[in-house]
Specification:
Helices cover 43% and strands 14% of the residues. By secondary structure, the chain is α/β, with parallel strands linked by helices. Strand 5, helix 6 and strand 6 form a beta-alpha-beta unit. Helix 3 packs across helix 4 and helix 3 packs parallel to helix 8. The N and C termini lie far apart (51 Å).
Length: 246
């Protein structure tokens, strides 16, 4: 029996893949496309680090106080020597990229291709357009030594908990995770505390999060828990003609 309620011809490719089993050929073809997407991204992003990824809402415009604060965050990270990476879109992402860009730092984005077309914001030195959410999330984590979580929606929470889970399970190292905006995230932090009280997470997992409203405190935390801990020094890397890099 064939289920047509998905309107497959109107869906993006990732959505069609997630709608259920398809022919073996289509499933195999999808894996090749994903592999190509990863290889293309690795080539594009190989020389950008070390990065700090800033997560946050795409819906806040320039009049929003969180937009202004994200600009300060982006500038501060750039002044520390980090490349500022975001999802490449508008809102908080644009603000963080803008702060880094205007501070003379390096600004990059991993932009998702959606049916309603999220365009890369204008404050990017380098960006890549990606078809698949899971590839994009992987890249936003792969190159970064810290994560700054600004106010946002479901996607921001998804990225926050993806990062914490990978740290908690030691899939990646104990990189600092900064939650910016104590009032906005008050109930979220309370729920994490309740999880620790009920032993669904370890009380030590509470230490993975640093909640602040201060750019200065964020800078000091990242200096201690990223730059000093991992002895970060920005070294120039030269593209190799052997690999066709520019």
């Amino acid at each position: 029996m064939e289920n047509n309620h998905h309107n497959n011809h109107l869906q993006p490719e990732e959505s069609r893949f997630l709608s259920g089993p398809r022919s073996r050929f289509k499933e195999l073809l999808f894996t090749f496309k994903v592999q190509y997407s990863f290889i293309r991204a690795f080539r594009k992003m190989h020389f950008i680090g070390p990065c700090v990824t800033v997560f946050g809402s795409a819906r806040f415009d320039v009049t929003n106080p969180f937009y202004k604060k994200a600009e300060e965050v982006g500038a501060a990270l750039a002044n520390m020597g980090f490349t500022v990476m975001t999802g490449g879109g508008p809102g908080i992402m644009e603000a963080a990229n803008k702060g880094a860009y205007e501070a003379g730092g390096y600004s990059v984005g991993c932009n998702i291709i959606l049916p309603f077309e999220q365009k890369p914001n204008p404050y990017l030195h380098k960006w890549i357009n990606i078809r698949y959410f899971f590839v994009r999330k992987f890249l936003l984590i792969k190159y970064s030594y810290a994560f700054v979580v600004m106010p946002g929606g479901m996607g921001t929470l998804d990225e926050l908990f993806e990062s914490i889970t990978l740290i908690q399970t030691k899939m990646i190292q104990n990189f600092p995770v900064v939650i910016f905006g104590s009032e906005y995230h008050k109930e979220l932090c309370e729920h994490i505390r309740i999880m620790a009280e009920n032993e669904s997470i370890s009380p030590k997992d509470m230490e993975l999060l640093f909640v602040t409203d201060s750019v200065v405190e964020m800078v000091e935390h990242i200096k201690t828990h990223a730059i000093q801990r991992f002895k970060l020094v920005k070294k120039p890397q030269r593209p190799s003609w052997w690999f066709g890099e520019e």
